[in-house]
Amino acid sequence: MVIPVSTPPIENGAVLVHGDKIAAVGHFSHLKGVVPPGTNVLDIEEGLIMPGLVNCHSHLTLSWMKDKIERGLGFSRWLRQLMGLNATASQEQYVEALQFGMGLSKKAGTVLLGDVLNSPVFSPSMESTVREDSMFIHFFLEVIHPKALWFDTNDMVRCLEEFFISWSLSAHSVYTCSRQALCAIKAFCQERGLTFSIHVAESREELEFVTRGKGPIAEILREKNRDVDGFFRSSPSPVRLLDEEGLLDEKTMCVHCTFLDDTDLDILGSRGAWVCLCPESNLYISGSMPRIDKIVQKVERICFGTDSLASNSNLSILSQLRAAFRAYPSIEPAILFKAATLGGAKALGFERFFGSLTEGATARFLILRYMPCKAHEVFEFLCSESVEERIEQFEP
Ligand SMILES: [Zn+2]
Question: What is the residue extent of each domain of the chain?
Answer without folding.
Answer: 13-51+356-394, 53-348
